[in-house]
């Protein structure tokens, strides 16, 4: 259960200037925003920090209704944030949701491989009294089997986790039977690299013109990566929605993938996923990453 934190977690210090107030949500801790270096010590926002705050607060608007859904059915919430970095998202979620709903038992886990960031996040959570936050110095693969994390979790998030870290977060969510998965993918280089290596073989088909030129290889590879991720989630019974995180003027890494487990039919999405991998000539190298359920599960799930 999230316990009462000290006064430092509340809005403290000098109030932000009036021009900054519209960027800060009601009840949002100014002290926390200063600790995260989103606000300066004088309560100011620069252009970069305003963009970051806008992104995270906008993402919170997507996540809050999902937390409420979990709360209505479970009366407790376990959320795991992968590629947490400085844990902006985890701290903002704790500040805006956990602190405002103290009657709900919540746990937020931040997973990060850089030990210095883990140490800093632990220290900040301790100073702010955010007792229901835990930070683990683990890879996503190791986190699947970590004793500190429950066998089943309610939500998995990954905000701008680079390259294959987003795929690792999906694998974690599937293994942990997460009800909700929220992903904002970052750079996606692996599929583009595989397309590039197999370009000679693929050029036998006119479809390869979509990625024959280097710039198109990178852009097409990024698009295909997220399409494969959506199909993989659907192949495991999730309902998937793709939307914009914020306006393109704020970030080019703007795609938001949101999935809810609905136990939906899987066979069609699994078949399309495998067909697409074969069509692109990458099934041997990427089939294990974009894995589908065993055949018996696909059959059992059909209406």
Order of helices and strands: HHHEHEHEHEHEHHHEEHHH
Number of helices: 13
Structural Rg: 21 Å
- In CATH, the topology of the largest domain is named Rossmann fold
Share of helix among residues?
40-55%
Structural class: alpha/beta
Count of domain modules: 2
Can you give a write-up of this model?
The chain is of the alpha/beta class and 303 residues long. It has two domains: 1-185, Rossmann fold, CATH 3.40.50; 187-237 and 264-303, no CATH class. The chain contains 13 helices and seven strands. It has a seven-stranded mixed sheet, with helices on both faces. Helix 3 (47-74) crosses helix 4 and helix 10 runs antiparallel to helix 11. The radius of gyration is 21 Å and the shape is globular. The model is unreliable at 1-14 (pLDDT under 50).
């Amino acid at each position: 259960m999230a316990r009462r934190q000290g006064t430092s977690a509340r809005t403290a210090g000098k109030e932000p200037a009036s021009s900054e107030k519209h960027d800060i949500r009601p009840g949002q801790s100014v002290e926390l925003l200063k600790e995260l270096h989103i606000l300066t010590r004088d309560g100011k926002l620069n252009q970069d920090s305003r963009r970051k705050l806008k992104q995270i607060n906008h993402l919170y608007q997507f996540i809050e209704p999902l937390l409420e859904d979990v709360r209505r059915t479970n009366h407790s919430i376990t959320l795991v944030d992968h590629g947490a970095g400085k844990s902006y998202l985890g701290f903002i979620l704790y500040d805006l949701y956990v602190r405002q709903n103290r009657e709900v038992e919540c746990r937020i886990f931040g997973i990060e491989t850089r030990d210095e960031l883990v140490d800093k996040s632990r220290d900040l959570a301790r100073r702010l009294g955010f007792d229901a936050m835990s930070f683990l110095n683990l890879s996503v693969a190791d986190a699947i089997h970590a004793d500190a994390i429950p066998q089943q979790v309610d939500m998995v998030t990954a905000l701008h986790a680079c390259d294959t870290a987003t795929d690792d977060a999906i694998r974690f969510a599937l293994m942990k039977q997460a009800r909700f998965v929220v992903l904002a993918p970052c750079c996606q280089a692996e599929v583009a690299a595989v397309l590039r290596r197999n370009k000679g073989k693929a050029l036998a088909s006119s479809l390869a013109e979509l990625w024959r030129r280097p710039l198109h290889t990178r852009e097409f590879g990024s698009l295909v990566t997220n399409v494969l991720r959506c199909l993989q989630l659907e192949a495991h019974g999730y309902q998937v929605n793709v939307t914009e995180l914020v306006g393109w003027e704020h970030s080019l890494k703007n795609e938001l993938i949101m999935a809810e487990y609905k136990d939906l039919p899987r066979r069609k999405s699994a078949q399309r996923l495998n067909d697409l991998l074969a069509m692109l000539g990458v099934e041997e190298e990427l089939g294990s990453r974009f894995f589908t359920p065993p055949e018996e599960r696909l059959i059992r799930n059909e209406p």
